[in-house]
From TrEMBL:
This is Regulator of ribonuclease activity B domain-containing protein. It holds the Pfam family RraB. It comes from Symbiobacterium thermophilum. Transmembrane segments: none annotated. Residues 14-113 form the Regulator of ribonuclease activity B domain.
Length: 118
């Protein structure tokens, strides 16, 4: 898969910052870690097994791996979880790491999700 362009990286970073700021007050982020879901998808040719193994080596737990042959562009969907602190810089670093990792396996990193109580 081709390397990420600067424009793609900037767009991913902007989306990460927006999502983070929609969940928490950046001036007072929570001190306890949260379970973050990391979402990936791949077409038929993607090496989701290789990605799953690489994620587990990095301390993630693969929560789900779904195959949908009816959806050619997203035939495989993988969700991995790990405890993370909700800090803007940390989330940007994790998204950089996971996007680069996904590209090694011809998989698309689709971002993160968590629930923060009010």
């Amino acid at each position: 898969m081709r390397p990420e362009t600067e424009a793609e990286r900037a767009a991913r970073h902007a989306a990460t910052v927006r999502a983070f700021r929609a969940l928490v007050d950046p001036a007072h982020p929570p001190r306890e870690p949260f379970v973050l879901e990391q979402h990936f998808y791949a077409a038929e040719g993607g090496d989701v097994d290789g990605l799953a193994a690489a994620l587990e080596e990095r301390g993630f737990k693969v929560e789900s791996l779904v195959y949908d042959p009816e959806n050619a562009d997203r035939a495989w969907r993988l969700v991995a979880v790990r405890l993370e602190l909700l800090e803007e810089r940390r989330l940007l670093a994790v998204s950089d790491e996971l996007d680069a990792l996904a590209r090694r396996f011809d998989v698309i990193y689709d971002g993160w999700l968590t629930h923060v109580p009010d």
